[in-house]
Amino acid sequence: MEVTIGNGKELIQQAQAIRYQVFTLEQKIPQELDLDGLDEDSLHALVSEQGKPIATARLKVNQDGSSVMARVAVSEESRGLGIASKLVSALIEHAKNIGVRSIEIHAHSYLRSYYEKFGFKFIQEVEVVGEHQLIEMQYYIVEM
Q1: Which UniProt keywords apply (predicted)?
Q2: Does 112 fall in a domain?
């Protein structure tokens, strides 16, 4: 299993293909909500197994050192193998290495305890996307 982090055109296309499968087809979230125009200005983590892309996540780094992790998606056949945890850990480590101060996520509410294991703190319930209640959580690399 290989994790690649970058923002090249091919990497973004592979990430979008995984997100289309997971978010649009499986979770019935309208594709226009996923394609928000931030992909080109973000870092993307892509997990590949034997050359096949199987998972992705996005990190949008802001000028002030804060960031937003979003679009965490694992292909259906690859779930339950700990791949999402490796993906999230890789992005957190990368964020630390490039001087990011904090990471915000808007996760599905049922994933609260999952993200708490990484050190994310619950902030509040936020928007509903499709039929999914999201929550805001924050990970502090440098206490603000």
Answers
A1: Acyltransferase, Transferase
A2: no
